[in-house]
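Long-time lurker. I teach an intro course on protein structure, and each term I like to show students one example going from raw sequence to a predicted 3D structure in C-alpha coordinate notation. This year I'd like something fresh instead of my usual example. Would anyone be willing to generate the C-alpha coordinates for the chain below so I can use it in lecture? Attribution to the forum is fine with me.
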Amino acid sequence: MLSQTPLLDHIVILVSHKDLLEISKFLDGQFTLAPGGTHADGLTANKLILLPDGVYLELIAFFDDVDPERRRQHRWGKAKENTIIDWAFTLPSEDDFPAVQKRLQQAGFGGSYTDPIPGGRTKPDGTILKWAVSTPRDSQGNPAQPGSLPFWCFDRTPREKRVPYEAEKKPHSAPEWAKVVYDAILGGNWNYGVPSGSNNARHDISLSSGDTTVRLVFNGSKPGKGELLPGISFEIEGLS
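-- Reply from a regular --
Happy to contribute to a lecture. Here you go:
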Protein backbone atom coordinates (compact mmCIF):
# COMPACT_ATOMS: atom_id res chain seq x y z
CA MET A 1 0.00 0.00 0.00
CA LEU A 2 1.15 3.54 -0.75
CA SER A 3 1.42 5.75 2.33
CA GLN A 4 1.16 8.87 0.15
CA THR A 5 -0.34 9.17 -3.33
CA PRO A 6 2.24 10.67 -5.73
CA LEU A 7 1.28 14.12 -7.01
CA LEU A 8 1.82 15.18 -10.61
CA ASP A 9 4.09 18.22 -10.19
CA HIS A 10 4.84 19.47 -13.69
CA ILE A 11 5.46 18.61 -17.34
CA VAL A 12 8.58 19.90 -19.12
CA ILE A 13 8.53 21.34 -22.65
CA LEU A 14 11.78 22.40 -24.34
CA VAL A 15 11.60 25.53 -26.51
CA SER A 16 14.06 27.93 -28.08
CA HIS A 17 15.08 30.95 -26.01
CA LYS A 18 13.44 33.21 -28.59
CA ASP A 19 10.13 31.39 -28.23
CA LEU A 20 10.41 31.48 -24.45
CA LEU A 21 10.68 35.27 -24.55
CA GLU A 22 7.72 35.52 -26.93
CA ILE A 23 5.50 32.80 -25.46
CA SER A 24 2.72 35.14 -24.35
CA LYS A 25 1.65 35.79 -27.93
CA PHE A 26 1.22 32.05 -28.55
CA LEU A 27 -1.04 31.63 -25.53
CA ASP A 28 -3.40 34.46 -26.49
CA GLY A 29 -5.16 34.52 -23.13
CA GLN A 30 -5.92 30.80 -23.05
CA PHE A 31 -3.65 30.02 -20.09
CA THR A 32 -2.11 31.79 -17.09
CA LEU A 33 1.60 32.42 -17.63
CA ALA A 34 3.90 33.02 -14.65
CA PRO A 35 7.51 34.23 -14.81
CA GLY A 36 10.01 31.53 -14.03
CA GLY A 37 13.64 32.56 -13.86
CA THR A 38 17.21 31.41 -14.41
CA HIS A 39 18.32 28.04 -13.08
CA ALA A 40 21.26 27.73 -10.70
CA ASP A 41 23.57 26.23 -13.35
CA GLY A 42 23.16 29.31 -15.55
CA LEU A 43 22.38 27.20 -18.63
CA THR A 44 18.60 27.49 -18.79
CA ALA A 45 15.66 29.73 -18.01
CA ASN A 46 11.97 28.95 -17.83
CA LYS A 47 8.40 30.23 -17.65
CA LEU A 48 5.40 28.42 -16.21
CA ILE A 49 1.91 27.80 -17.56
CA LEU A 50 -0.16 27.45 -14.39
CA LEU A 51 -3.14 25.10 -14.29
CA PRO A 52 -5.97 25.52 -11.74
CA ASP A 53 -5.23 22.22 -9.97
CA GLY A 54 -1.65 23.21 -9.07
CA VAL A 55 0.10 21.27 -11.83
CA TYR A 56 2.07 23.38 -14.31
CA LEU A 57 3.74 23.16 -17.70
CA GLU A 58 7.37 24.20 -17.57
CA LEU A 59 8.61 25.91 -20.72
CA ILE A 60 12.39 25.68 -20.52
CA ALA A 61 15.05 26.99 -22.89
CA PHE A 62 18.82 26.95 -23.10
CA PHE A 63 20.45 30.35 -23.45
CA ASP A 64 21.72 30.91 -26.97
CA ASP A 65 25.31 31.52 -25.84
CA VAL A 66 25.62 28.33 -23.78
CA ASP A 67 28.77 26.32 -24.47
CA PRO A 68 27.72 23.41 -26.75
CA GLU A 69 29.62 20.85 -24.70
CA ARG A 70 27.98 21.99 -21.45
CA ARG A 71 24.61 21.75 -23.15
CA ARG A 72 25.29 18.20 -24.38
CA GLN A 73 26.14 17.15 -20.83
CA HIS A 74 22.85 18.51 -19.49
CA ARG A 75 20.04 16.03 -18.84
CA TRP A 76 17.93 17.65 -21.57
CA GLY A 77 20.78 18.96 -23.70
CA LYS A 78 20.20 16.55 -26.59
CA ALA A 79 16.41 16.82 -26.59
CA LYS A 80 14.48 18.26 -29.51
CA GLU A 81 13.01 21.72 -29.11
CA ASN A 82 9.22 22.15 -29.25
CA THR A 83 8.64 18.73 -27.72
CA ILE A 84 7.52 17.43 -24.34
CA ILE A 85 10.76 16.10 -22.90
CA ASP A 86 10.06 15.09 -19.30
CA TRP A 87 7.65 15.18 -16.38
CA ALA A 88 7.85 15.15 -12.60
CA PHE A 89 6.08 13.64 -9.62
CA THR A 90 6.31 14.94 -6.08
CA LEU A 91 5.11 13.84 -2.64
CA PRO A 92 3.57 15.78 0.24
CA SER A 93 6.83 15.16 2.11
CA GLU A 94 10.31 14.35 0.82
CA ASP A 95 10.64 12.07 3.85
CA ASP A 96 8.26 9.61 2.13
CA PHE A 97 10.55 9.14 -0.88
CA PRO A 98 12.85 6.43 0.56
CA ALA A 99 9.76 4.19 0.74
CA VAL A 100 9.29 4.66 -3.02
CA GLN A 101 12.92 3.72 -3.65
CA LYS A 102 12.47 0.63 -1.47
CA ARG A 103 9.32 -0.46 -3.35
CA LEU A 104 11.22 -0.29 -6.63
CA GLN A 105 13.95 -2.54 -5.23
CA GLN A 106 11.33 -5.01 -4.03
CA ALA A 107 9.56 -4.91 -7.42
CA GLY A 108 12.64 -6.23 -9.20
CA PHE A 109 12.98 -3.15 -11.40
CA GLY A 110 16.76 -3.56 -11.60
CA GLY A 111 17.28 0.16 -11.90
CA SER A 112 16.86 2.83 -9.26
CA TYR A 113 16.13 6.45 -8.48
CA THR A 114 18.99 8.61 -7.27
CA ASP A 115 18.87 10.14 -3.84
CA PRO A 116 17.49 13.71 -4.15
CA ILE A 117 20.11 16.14 -5.51
CA PRO A 118 19.80 19.86 -4.56
CA GLY A 119 18.91 22.39 -7.25
CA GLY A 120 17.19 25.74 -7.60
CA ARG A 121 16.70 28.93 -9.54
CA THR A 122 16.30 32.67 -8.99
CA LYS A 123 13.01 34.36 -9.87
CA PRO A 124 13.00 37.71 -11.70
CA ASP A 125 12.14 39.46 -8.41
CA GLY A 126 15.28 38.01 -6.78
CA THR A 127 13.53 35.27 -4.80
CA ILE A 128 15.79 32.21 -4.47
CA LEU A 129 14.03 28.86 -4.81
CA LYS A 130 15.50 25.59 -3.61
CA TRP A 131 14.49 22.02 -4.35
CA ALA A 132 15.93 18.55 -4.77
CA VAL A 133 15.50 16.25 -7.77
CA SER A 134 15.73 12.48 -8.13
CA THR A 135 16.14 10.94 -11.58
CA PRO A 136 15.80 7.34 -12.78
CA ARG A 137 18.74 5.08 -13.59
CA ASP A 138 18.67 1.81 -15.52
CA SER A 139 20.07 -1.51 -14.30
CA GLN A 140 23.60 -0.48 -15.41
CA GLY A 141 23.38 2.78 -13.48
CA ASN A 142 23.03 4.94 -16.60
CA PRO A 143 20.48 7.78 -16.78
CA ALA A 144 17.16 6.60 -18.17
CA GLN A 145 15.85 8.29 -21.30
CA PRO A 146 14.20 11.54 -20.11
CA GLY A 147 10.43 11.27 -20.30
CA SER A 148 10.33 7.47 -20.26
CA LEU A 149 9.83 7.55 -16.48
CA PRO A 150 9.01 10.49 -14.20
CA PHE A 151 11.66 12.24 -12.20
CA TRP A 152 10.84 13.56 -8.71
CA CYS A 153 10.93 17.17 -7.51
CA PHE A 154 10.87 18.03 -3.79
CA ASP A 155 10.61 21.62 -2.62
CA ARG A 156 13.01 22.83 0.06
CA THR A 157 11.49 26.31 -0.01
CA PRO A 158 7.68 26.69 0.05
CA ARG A 159 6.11 25.31 -3.12
CA GLU A 160 3.76 28.29 -3.45
CA LYS A 161 6.82 30.45 -4.14
CA ARG A 162 7.81 28.16 -7.01
CA VAL A 163 4.26 27.59 -8.30
CA PRO A 164 2.01 30.52 -7.34
CA TYR A 165 -1.06 28.97 -8.94
CA GLU A 166 -3.45 30.28 -6.27
CA ALA A 167 -2.14 33.83 -6.48
CA GLU A 168 -1.96 33.79 -10.29
CA LYS A 169 -5.26 31.96 -10.86
CA LYS A 170 -7.82 33.91 -12.85
CA PRO A 171 -11.59 33.52 -12.21
CA HIS A 172 -13.61 32.30 -15.06
CA SER A 173 1.94 -0.21 -25.03
CA ALA A 174 5.03 0.46 -23.32
CA PRO A 175 8.07 -1.60 -22.32
CA GLU A 176 7.39 -4.04 -19.49
CA TRP A 177 10.02 -2.38 -17.25
CA ALA A 178 8.03 0.85 -17.42
CA LYS A 179 4.90 -0.96 -16.23
CA VAL A 180 6.82 -2.41 -13.28
CA VAL A 181 7.95 1.08 -12.26
CA TYR A 182 4.48 2.63 -12.52
CA ASP A 183 2.92 -0.24 -10.59
CA ALA A 184 5.48 0.22 -7.83
CA ILE A 185 5.05 4.01 -7.69
CA LEU A 186 1.30 4.31 -8.14
CA GLY A 187 -0.21 0.96 -7.25
CA GLY A 188 -2.58 -0.87 -9.55
CA ASN A 189 -4.82 1.97 -10.69
CA TRP A 190 -2.12 4.45 -11.84
CA ASN A 191 -3.93 7.43 -10.35
CA TYR A 192 -2.02 10.47 -9.17
CA GLY A 193 -3.07 13.41 -6.99
CA VAL A 194 -2.69 17.13 -7.62
CA PRO A 195 -1.35 19.77 -5.21
CA SER A 196 -4.74 21.46 -4.71
CA GLY A 197 -6.40 18.19 -3.69
CA SER A 198 -9.07 18.70 -6.36
CA ASN A 199 -11.07 15.70 -7.59
CA ASN A 200 -12.90 17.63 -10.33
CA ALA A 201 -11.09 15.89 -13.19
CA ARG A 202 -9.61 12.53 -14.10
CA HIS A 203 -6.04 12.20 -12.85
CA ASP A 204 -4.51 9.12 -14.35
CA ILE A 205 -1.67 7.85 -16.51
CA SER A 206 -1.83 5.34 -19.34
CA LEU A 207 0.83 3.83 -21.57
CA SER A 208 0.71 3.23 -25.30
CA SER A 209 2.94 1.28 -27.63
CA GLY A 210 5.25 2.85 -30.18
CA ASP A 211 7.55 5.84 -29.84
CA THR A 212 7.88 7.52 -26.45
CA THR A 213 5.52 10.51 -26.48
CA VAL A 214 3.44 12.35 -23.90
CA ARG A 215 -0.14 13.34 -24.74
CA LEU A 216 -1.78 16.10 -22.71
CA VAL A 217 -5.55 15.99 -22.17
CA PHE A 218 -7.21 18.63 -20.00
CA ASN A 219 -10.72 18.84 -18.58
CA GLY A 220 -12.71 21.95 -19.44
CA SER A 221 -15.99 23.52 -20.43
CA LYS A 222 -15.02 24.06 -24.09
CA PRO A 223 -13.93 20.77 -25.72
CA GLY A 224 -11.47 21.03 -28.56
CA LYS A 225 -7.85 20.92 -29.61
CA GLY A 226 -5.19 23.59 -29.75
CA GLU A 227 -1.49 24.30 -30.01
CA LEU A 228 0.78 25.79 -27.36
CA LEU A 229 3.68 26.07 -29.78
CA PRO A 230 4.41 24.63 -33.22
CA GLY A 231 4.55 20.88 -32.63
CA ILE A 232 3.10 21.02 -29.08
CA SER A 233 -0.64 20.26 -29.15
CA PHE A 234 -3.20 19.67 -26.43
CA GLU A 235 -6.78 18.42 -26.18
CA ILE A 236 -9.60 19.60 -23.89
CA GLU A 237 -12.28 17.08 -22.95
CA GLY A 238 -15.76 18.18 -21.92
CA LEU A 239 -16.63 18.23 -18.23
CA SER A 240 -18.28 14.98 -17.18
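Some talking points for your students: The mean pLDDT is 86. Helices lie at 17-21, 23-27, 68-73, 97-106, 159-162, 165-168, 176-186.
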